[in-house]
Amino acid sequence: MGPGPNLLDSFSSELDLYYTSGGIDYRSSSLFKKDSYYAQSFGASTSLGAVDIDSTLDFDPKAVRLNYFLAETDFRLSGLNIGNTFLLEDTENAGYGAGYQL
Predict the structure, then answer these.
(1) Residue 4 dihedral angles phi and psi, to the nearest 5°
(2) Is 79 exposed, middle or buried (0-12, 13-18, 19+ CB in 10 A)?
(3) What is residue 71's predicted lDDT score, i.e. its pLDDT?
(4) Whole-number CA gyration radius for the chain
(5) Backbone dihedral region of 61: left (phi > 0), alpha (psi from -120 to 50 degrees) or beta?
(6) Is the pLDDT confidence value at 1 over 70?
(7) Rounded to an integer, what distance in angstroms lies between the CA atom of residue 17 and that of residue 67?
(8) pTM for this entry
């Protein structure tokens, strides 16, 4: 009877970091498997009065490329909420594509 399965074959780890300075919340998330660093994202969010702003950059460290950039804003006034979303995304086959939603 041979040795059993290697327990490290299914090993994965996530490192999440959070930092706040000057009213801006920063975040970072790194994902690792046993023998690879396979995902990384960075984000920042803040509020400027009635406007909330959030952005995220997501990278593929193996392919050394940007997966997407997402920027969102929300404006609140007297019960009215207006949101904006911008997405720049790698489409893998045709380069980058962008979209905007109000």
Answers:
(1) -75, 180
(2) exposed
(3) 96
(4) 19
(5) alpha
(6) no
(7) 20
(8) 0.80
Cα–chain-centroid distance for residue 79?
29
Taken as a whole, the chain contains a residue count of 102
pLDDT tens, residue by residue, 32-65: 988 888 899 999 999 999 999 999 999 999 888 8
Closest-CA residue to 17 (of 31, 35, 33) = 31
What is the DSSP track for the chain?
------GGGG-EEEEEEEEEETTEEEEEEEEEETTEEEEEEEEEEEEETTEEEEEEEEEETTTTEEEEEEEEEEEEETTEEEEEEEEEEE-SSS-EEEEEE-
Q: What is the residue whose two structure tokens read 């009877």?
A: 1
Q: How confident is the model at residue 92 (pLDDT cuts 50, 70, 90)?
A: confident
What are the sequence ranges of the domains in the chain?
12-101
